[in-house]
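I have a small job for you when you get a moment. Can you supply me with one protein entry, sequence and fold together? It will help me judge whether the discrete encoding reads sensibly. Write everything out right here, beneath this request:
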Amino acid sequence: MKFVVLIMALASAFPLSLGVRGNAAFARLFWTLFGLLPFLAAALPLFDIGIISWAGEWVGFVYSLEITIVDILALAALLAVPGGPVPWAYKVPLLVYIAVASLSIFQATEPLAATFGIWQFMRMFLVVVAVTRAARHDPKVVVDILRGMAIGMGMNVIAVVYQRFGLDLTQTRGLFVHQNTLGLTTHFVLFPHLAMLLYGYGRLRYLVPAIMATVLVVIFTASRAAVGLAAIGMVITYCALALAGLTQRKVMLALAAAVALAAVAPMAISTFQNRFEAVPLTEEEYDERAAFELAASYIVADYPAGVGVNHYVYIAKNFGYSERANVSPSEGNRNNIVHNAYWLAAVETGYLGLFAFVLMLAVPLVTALKWGWRERMTAEGNLLLGMGVAMLIAYVHSMYEWVIFAREIQYLLFSTMGMAFGLSLRAAVKWRTAPAGRSTARSAYAAAPAHPSAMPARWQATR
């Protein structure tokens, strides 16, 4: 039966693509859903189809060979959007990581389980290519995807308020399975929307509510990393856009943010007090993260080429590494993944895989920051800077969490990469075709007023 459903789902990609290509209103709804659905992955029963599933039998960042609704939408988008291929410079880093991960199958104790992880990254390749092409073809796609992400965060704020005050949870997880996953999702919503607000991107009246809702979600996760990095990211975003051109709007928003901070500070303090009263910190007695990382270091020392994608828990638990690193003997701890994405990449795909993983993350970050700064007097440039900060903070956060490997986070991450690539390609074309060369273009940007009325016509149409 599930294969019949799978065939029907894949077949639906073609009519969806026709709708996206032929109807502007449908296309807007399509891309809004594309941004929203990752927030519902854990709560939506029909979100995925497990072709082969080891649920309950395998512990890793993925336990099935699956296809999700987002994959079907990405396939439909690829069929719908005209245009040439994505430059190899943008595709090669992810392809290299997929290739290295594929080689790790030969080290894997359970090759099929390793295939689950590789298949997930192959689906993300589809996502990044589809979003890149769409954003390059029409920048309104970026606004629609971000709107969907904001709606998803709005659903989560309702959930966290209920969990905090209705269920009296000290750490809320929203619609996700864990508060750390929710905390990482906030980066991809908060910083691009903050960048648009600081720029003065008008008529998107949901910007302030979206930012406030995201900050509230961050606070109620009671995650030290999420709260601290959100604050750092907001400061970086503001400083970057202030350096691009300090306006009266940005000064007023800074003052408003200071007042808002004073208002929410007592709530944040109370949230952390409730958390630590319910579950006191015991890191002086037992540092869970340090124990996991020690186990990971032992595995890498013994297997410098990696143990196989999606195999950390299996190797650490069954080959004595968790015990050797004094990981707590409880089943929950022994079945947990090292709380550091970079150690996880090193364990599963070796040193070569770690290099490929970092390269895969670095290319879109550098691209977003490079073209964001060059286009800093435009709406596209500000959005690129906001996306660059989102990726940067997510990468730093991944030094304390592994969930950047989870499919929910990866959909948001690779969608953000695709949006950054698409806008960068548009900026590159504009610079190449500037009549008097890049120096004249740079001067024109420096002289342009940072006001919504000065935005390109293609962006004003989305306002």
Q: What stands out?
A: The first strand starts at residue 48 and ends at 53.
